[in-house]
């Protein structure tokens, strides 16, 4: 095993230094919570009687504090395909807990919206703040002084980050994340994308489009493209917060149930009263956060995590920014190409070697921190193995020596790119990020006149009118957290892809999001500071030449400096009422910039 890469060591040391005070306050907080905080032994008889009144055969054990009582926090609903499998999980987990003398209770449920359903709809304006809502809901679930550990049932976009943020605020508890797996592969994602573009051009009917979408999203489990949901599962593996290898086995399989059973057994064994105490707040340290960033870069994961990871880190008293991402990106090779970065989906990735192969290979090359506290029996090395069933017994074998598909997965020595899949762009427009792993290198630099919009619908109207059939930088502003909750702008993907396919140079610049489904069109996203409140994107005018360059890290309006500074910034459109969006005004008002996590909750690291 090679020594740690010097860039990783340098960035990690910098994160340790800038997080020193906040992390110390955080660790003091969770230590005090563990020693003096809410515990069943401190509850009055009335408190305790309320808590086990409906616990059936577990009453005696809970009453007498005979063993660990595990909190189950579930994001189950049966509209969201990824979370539909969780329906029976609580009752199974209770059985699994009893096998090791423990008990389990559903501590609470959290909302779980599907970005796939709300894309381009009003509900998408609630998406980012659903993460904070989930974190607060989870905190309420864990506020009862009844638990010695927690199992988090969640998979999708904002749900895992929200659960993790809240788990870290109760960081004295050992906590394991329990996924349910991706649905089996359906219609190839490339074919789905082809039909979408044909529909955008008016060459496919709505019935044909719906047929293609239904053949792609067809059953229980996570959507199979490598978006934010599956990037979440990668991240939980590389941070050591899953049972090793739990990320991508399909729902309803024996191995999936065995992994869930192992999680229930394990969380009962890593409590404070045992000999292997592994509280979540100690597992998620500076090195684990760096590992999360490395996993994101090495696999070309979702750009949403350039918002989520800073917010998660702050919940643990740790400070990271996009400079840390950018410097790590220069050192981390791209070892996976999963749709939209390649042709195969996460099932093909799993078959090629999956996370066990990725972690094993990165560790061998000194590209991950091995010495982290995981929820398992050892450090991160255990996550370089692959789970299997032998006579119905769960075992772990070495990950495959070689990838079975080098179009999908490769070792670092023959990586798809020597650099990670994300770039930081800076200039007189502010700071933004670009997912370069899905963009052909010939399009990493675009310089063209800007066309300014304030809504996705206005872009679509201009496209249909033929006004964008030229070299163009499409600017969509007033899409940040404070303006409208920072929705994902996926209505833009098909028309911009069509313009590019017609031979024009096209790029997107926005203070909004594009997420893990960011595709082949170069997109400078998450632009900070956002337009609302004075961000310089507000100074742009139609016709200004804008340079977007991932090679030099440039995002520049080619405007005379004196004229640029003299320009006024227009007021943005008012926040739209309806669908309860007005209830989130407080969150919009207090939201951080995207680089700090776009959160309305955490105003100072460690507090």
Explain the overall architecture:
By secondary structure, the protein is an alpha/beta fold. The protein folds into 3 domains: about 350 residues, no CATH class; about 35 residues, no CATH class; about 170 residues, Glucose Oxidase, domain 1 (3-Layer(bba) Sandwich). It contains 23 helices and 14 strands. Strands 7-8-12-11-10-9-13-14 form an 8-stranded mixed beta sheet. It has a 4-stranded parallel beta sheet with strand order 2-1-3-4, sandwiched between helices. A two-stranded antiparallel sheet has the order 5-6. A hairpin with a 4-residue loop joins β13 and β14. α1 runs antiparallel to α16 and α9 packs across α21. The protein is globular and about 75 Å long. The protein starts with 5 loop residues before the first helix and ends in a 17-residue tail after the last helix. The model has no long low-confidence stretch (mean pLDDT about 95).
Question: Which terms summarize this structure?
Answer:
metal-binding; 607 residues; iron-sulfur; 3 domains; globular; gluconate utilization; Glucose Oxidase, domain 1; 8-stranded mixed sheet; alpha/beta; 14 strands; 4-stranded parallel sheet
* Number of helices in the DSSP assignment: 23
Computed Rg:
24 Å
Global morphology:
globular
What is the CA–CA distance across the termini?
Answer: 38 Å
Strand proportion, as a percent range, falls in 5-15%
Largest sheet: 8 strands, mixed
Secondary-structure content class: alpha/beta
Helical content stands at 25-40%
Largest sheet, order of strands side by side? 7-8-12-11-10-9-13-14
Domains, number: 3
Q: Outline the low-pLDDT stretches.
A: none
The protein's oligomeric status is single chain
Average of per-residue pLDDT values: 93
The overall strand count is 14
């Amino acid at each position: 095993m090679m020594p740690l890469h010097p860039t990783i060591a340098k960035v990690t040391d910098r994160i340790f230094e800038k997080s020193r005070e906040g992390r110390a306050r955080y660790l003091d907080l969770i230590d005090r919570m563990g020693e003096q905080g809410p515990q069943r032994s401190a509850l009055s008889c009335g408190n305790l009687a309320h808590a086990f009144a409906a616990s059936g055969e577990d009453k005696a054990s809970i009453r007498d504090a005979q063993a660990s009582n595990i909190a189950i926090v579930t994001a189950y609903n049966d509209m969201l395909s990824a979370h539909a499998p969780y329906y029976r999980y609580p009752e199974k987990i209770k059985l699994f807990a009893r096998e090791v003398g423990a008990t389990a209770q559903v501590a609470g449920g959290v909302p779980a919206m599907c970005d796939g359903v709300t894309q381009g709809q009003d509900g998408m304006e609630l998406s980012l703040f659903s993460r904070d809502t989930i974190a607060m809901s989870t905190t309420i679930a864990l506020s009862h002084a009844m638990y010695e550990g927690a199992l988090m049932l969640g998979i999708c976009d904002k749900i895992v980050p929200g659960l993790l943020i809240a788990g870290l605020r109760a960081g004295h508890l050992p906590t394991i994340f329990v996924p349910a797996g991706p649905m089996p592969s359906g219609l190839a994602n490339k074919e789905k994308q082809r039909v979408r573009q044909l529909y955008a051009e008016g060459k496919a009917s709505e019935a044909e489009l719906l047929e293609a979408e239904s053949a792609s999203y067809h059953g229980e489990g996570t959507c199979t493209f490598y978006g934010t949901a599956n990037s979440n599962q990668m991240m939980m593996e590389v941070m050591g917060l899953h049972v090793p290898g739990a990320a991508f086995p399909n729902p309803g399989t024996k191995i999936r149930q065995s992994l869930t059973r192992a999680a229930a057994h394990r969380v009962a064994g890593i409590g404070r009263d045992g000999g292997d105490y592994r509280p979540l707040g100690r597992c998620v340290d500076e090195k684990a956060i760096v590992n999360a960033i490395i996993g994101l870069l090495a696999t070309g994961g979702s750009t949403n995590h350039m918002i989520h990871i800073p917010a998660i880190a702050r919940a643990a008293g740790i400070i990271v920014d996009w400079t840390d991402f950018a410097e790590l990106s220069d050192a981390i090779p791209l070892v996976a190409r999963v749709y939209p970065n390649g042709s195969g989906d996460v099932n093909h990735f799993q078959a090629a070697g999956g996370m066990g192969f990725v972690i094993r290979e990165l560790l061998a090359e000194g590209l991950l921190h091995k010495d982290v506290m995981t929820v398992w029996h050892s450090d991160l090395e255990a996550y370089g193995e692959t789970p299997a069933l032998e006579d119905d017994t769960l075992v772990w074998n070495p990950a495959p020596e070689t990838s079975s598909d080098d179009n999908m997965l490769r070792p670092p020595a023959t990586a798809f790119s020597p650099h990670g899949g994300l770039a930081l762009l800076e200039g007189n427009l502010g700071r933004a990020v670009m997912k370069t792993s899905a963009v052909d290198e010939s399009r990493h630099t675009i310089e063209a006149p800007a066309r300014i919009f304030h809504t996705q619908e206005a872009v679509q109207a201009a496209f249909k009118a033929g006004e964008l059939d030229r070299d163009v930088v499409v600017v969509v502003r007033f899409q940040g957290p404070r303006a409208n909750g920072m929705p994902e702008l996926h209505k833009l993907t098909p028309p911009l892809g069509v313009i590019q396919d017609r031979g024009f140079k096209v790029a997107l610049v926005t203070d909004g999001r594009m997420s893990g489904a960011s595709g082949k069109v170069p997109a400078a996203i998450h632009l900070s500071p956002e337009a609302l409140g004075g961000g310089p994107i507000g100074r742009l005018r139609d016709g200004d030449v804008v340079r977007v360059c991932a090679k030099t890290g440039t995002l520049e309006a080619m405007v005379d400096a004196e004229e640029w500074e003299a320009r006024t910034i227009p007021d943005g459109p008012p926040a739209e009422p309806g669908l309860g969006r007005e209830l989130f005004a407080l969150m919009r008002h207090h939201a951080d910039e995207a680089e700090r996590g776009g959160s309305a909750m955490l105003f100072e690291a460690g507090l």
